[in-house]
Amino acid sequence: MKKLTIIGSGNMGLALAKGLVKSGLYKASSITLTRRNLGGLSEYASQGFITSNNNAEAVKDADIIVLAVLPQQVNKVLDEVKPSINPESQLFTSVVSGVTCKNIKEKLYPNLQVVRVMPNTAIAIQQSMTCFATDNASEENLSLVKEMFDTVGVSIQIQEELMTSATALCACGIAFFLRSIRAASQGGVEVGFHAHDALMMAAQTAKGAADLLLQLASHPEREIDKVTSPKGCTIAGLNEMEHNGFSSAMIKGIKTSAKIAGELYVKE
Ligand SMILES: NC(=O)C1=CN([C@@H]2O[C@H](COP(=O)(O)OP(=O)(O)OC[C@H]3O[C@@H](n4cnc5c(N)ncnc54)[C@H](OP(=O)(O)O)[C@@H]3O)[C@@H](O)[C@H]2O)C=CC1
Ligand SMILES: O=C(O)[C@@H]1CCC=N1
C-alpha cells in the first residue's frame, strides 16, 4: 500500500482522505494529514490517521503527496517542503485551483512528476467527478492517479488548459446544484410541504434526474420532453423559469467561476 501525505487537511483534503479509506484503497494508517492547527485533526488521529503540523517531516516518507491548501497559501508551503522532496521517487499531486504543474515545478524541481487534480467534495462519499492533467507524469503515475480517483467516483484526464473550466463545472458545480435543490425545496414549502420533507423530495428528484442521464446515456431535453405534457404544468413552470433567466444564470455563473479560478494564484 502506497503512503500518502495530504498537505492542508481542510474541506477538500479531509473529504479525499475519508473517501479513500471508505473505498478500501487506503488504510487510515497509511495517510498523513497536515494542518497548522493540529487540534482540528484530533478526531482523525483517533480514527488512525497520522496527523502532523510539520509539512517538511510529513512529506519525507510519502510515495504520493497531495497539496490541498488554498492558492494563497501555496508559495509558503512549497518553500517549506522543498528540502524534503525527492523528485526521483515521489509523485506530487495538487488539487489547488489555478496552480499549474509548471508553477509547482518552478517552485520545487523541474524533474518532479506533477499531476494536477480537480475533485469535488462528493469524494467523501465516493461520488466525485474528478478531472486530472499533467505535462510530465509517466503513464504509470497517471494510472496510479486514475485508480486512486476512480475508487472515489469517476475520473477523466483532460488537457491542462481546461483545468479552471473543470473547476467551475465540477468542483464549484456541487454548490450550484445544491443551491438549485435548496431553491426547489423552498418552492416545495410554498406549495405545501414541511421544509425537511420538501428538501428530501427535491434531493431525490435531482438524483433521479441525474441518473436518467447517466444510466440511460440520455440527453436532458429528451428526458424533459417526456415530462412536459402539452398544455401541462411542467412546461408552464419551466418556461416561467427560463423567462426569469434560469439557464442563463447557470451559464453566467459557471463562466464567472472559471475566470476567477484562473486568477486565484499569484506567483511570487
Ligand atoms: N472545497 C472544495 O470543494 C474544493 C477545493 N479545492 C481546492 O482545495 C484547496 C483547499 O480548499 P478547501 O479545502 O476548501 O480549503 P480549507 O481552507 O478548508 O482547507 C485548507 C487547509 O489548509 C490548511 N493549511 C493552511 N496553511 C497550511 C500550512 N502552512 N500547512 C499545512 N496546512 C495548512 C488549513 O488548516 P490550518 O489553518 O489549521 O493550517 C486548512 O485546513 C484549495 O486550493 C481549493 O482550490 C479543489 C476542489 C474542490
Ligand atoms: O471555491 C473555491 O475556490 C474552491 C475551488 C473549487 C471549489 N472550491
TrEMBL record:
Cellular compartment(s): Cytoplasm
SUPFAM superfamilies hit by this protein: 6-phosphogluconate dehydrogenase C-terminal domain-like, NAD(P)-binding Rossmann-fold domains
Keyword field: Amino-acid biosynthesis, Cytoplasm, NADP, Oxidoreductase, Proline biosynthesis
Gene Ontology CC terms, in alphabetical order: cytoplasm
Reactions catalysed according to its record: L-proline + NADP(+) = (S)-1-pyrroline-5-carboxylate + NADPH + 2 H(+); L-proline + NAD(+) = (S)-1-pyrroline-5-carboxylate + NADH + 2 H(+)
A single BP term in Gene Ontology: L-proline biosynthetic process
Pyrroline-5-carboxylate reductase dimerisation domain segment(s): 160-263
Binding site for NADPH: N55
Keyword Cell inner membrane recorded: no
Pathway: Amino-acid biosynthesis; L-proline biosynthesis; L-proline from L-glutamate 5-semialdehyde: step 1/1
UniProt-recorded Gene Ontology molecular function terms: pyrroline-5-carboxylate reductase activity
Enzyme class: oxidoreductase
Protein residues bound to NADP(+): I7, G8, S9, G10, N11, M12, A68, V69, L70, P71
Pyrroline-5-carboxylate reductase catalytic N-terminal domain sequence ranges: 3-84
Summary of the function given for this chain in its UniProt record: Catalyzes the reduction of 1-pyrroline-5-carboxylate (PCA) to L-proline.
Family, as annotated: Belongs to the pyrroline-5-carboxylate reductase family.
The protein's name in its UniProt record: Pyrroline-5-carboxylate reductase
Gene for this chain: proC
